[in-house]
Amino acid sequence: MLETSRPEVAFGLDVVSRASRLARRIQAEMASSAIEKADRSPVTVADFCVQALVGWHVDRSWPDLPLVAEESSQSLRRAESAAVQEGIVRFLRLELPEVDLEAACRWIDRGGGEPEGRFWVLDPIDGTKGFLRGDQYAVALALVEDGKVRVGFLGCPRWTLPGEDRERGSLLAAVGGGGAWWAPLEGERKWRPLQVSSRTHPSEIRFLRSFESEHIDVGQLERLMQRLGVEREPERMDSQAKYGQLACGAADLLLRVPSPQRPDRREWIWDHAAGSLLVEEAGGQVTDVEGKSLDFSAGRRLNRNFGVLVSNGHLHRTVLEVLHELAAP
Ligand code: AMP
Ligand code: MG
After folding, report:
1. Which of 31, 60, 69, 142 could pair covalently with 273 via S-S, beta carbons 3.0-4.6 A apart?
2. Ligand 1 neighbourhood includes 231 CB (under 6 angstroms)
3. Is 27:127 a contact under the CB 8 Å cutoff?
4. Cβ atoms of residues 248 and 161 within 8 Å
5. Which of 214, 216, 271, 305 should be mutated for ligand 1, with most atoms under 8 A from CB?
6. Which residues are catalytic?
């Protein structure tokens, strides 16, 4: 069973479910205004609200631990952000009734911690572009210790397991050595263990890729699929919901290599911390494209890794070999 009595697990579940529900509400109430005016963007309001909320909870429950998160209040404090400021205070008060703008900025900046030793890491809204499109996004929180992810949580309001009611969304939890788990975000919380697929035949293999083509090297993905003999089109999905899709066995492979326009780009730790543990605990494998484990002790980015390969485990070595061949001059 999921060890819900462990303090870091109880904390992660509570905070990520609160934050995900808040994000869902912001998406529902603000979606139409976003397109007209970037300044009122609901993703901005949701990013800041979620980060402030998590910052507040981390500060109260884990006063000694850093929080490393994507946003800072700098852009928010500028005068032209008045509409966003108003939105943040309005939505954040649903969870923290006393909050004002100064306090919100303070809680957002609680996320400016150093990624050293033991720390929480947060992507308040992973899949910004999906959030705006009305597609997939995730609230992603993880606890890292000595460069390894110890527990991880994803709140995915628009994603669920095959056969489940998508309206109820998903809460996903992973505990190092304690499994990967799913429960609906809304309604009775009955936990189910997650298990990756066992598909290996090229005719069956299901690839996942980012929805946004500029986030990845599409050519490299196509070459890999061709060499493996995979015919099925990859499923396009935003955010770490992809890790959920792999952990539950609905997909088998995910390759993320920086686009050729930005070969020096390294991945943010918050884009992979929670999701990678989820897949590993479901029996899958996560490395960079050279086969190295992801190293979460190298700053706010995965500076010691290039690209990310996620698989059901069975296919991992074969894919690494093909990637190696493809990289050879
Ligand atoms: P995905 O939903 O798979 O497209 O991944 C979303 C993440 O991609 C965001 O959280 C960003 O950190 C990251 N991202 C944003 N722009 C880029 C880019 N140009 N190349 C690679 N990743 C990016
Ligand atoms: Mg992200």
Report:
1. 142
2. no
3. no
4. yes
5. 271
6. 47, 128
Q: Provide the 10 A C-beta neighbour count for residue 102.
A: 10
pLDDT in tens, 264-292: 999 999 999 999 999 999 999 999 999 99
Instruction: Specify the pLDDT at position 233.
Output: 97
Q: Which atom of ligand 1 is nearest to the CA of 239?
A: 2
What is the Cα–Cα distance from 122 to 153, expressed in whole angstroms? 10
Both tokens assigned to 211: 């929805």
Is the Cβ atom of 239 under 6 angstroms away from ligand 1? yes
pLDDT < 70 stretches in the chain: 31-42
Per-residue pLDDT, 34: 46
* pTM exceeds 0.90, yes or no: yes
Among candidates 285, 267, 268, 289, which has minimal Cα distance to 276?
285
Dig out the tokens for 103 from the structure. 């306090």
Handedness of CA 118, 170, 123, 298 (dihedral sign): positive
CA gap 238, 212 in Å, rounded:
8
Short-list 139, 134, 158, CA closest to 53:
139
Measured from the CB, is residue 238 less than 6 Å from ligand 1? yes
Report the distance separating Cα 242 and Cα 238, nearest Å. Answer: 7
Q: Report the atom number in ligand 1 closest to the C-alpha of 126.
A: 10
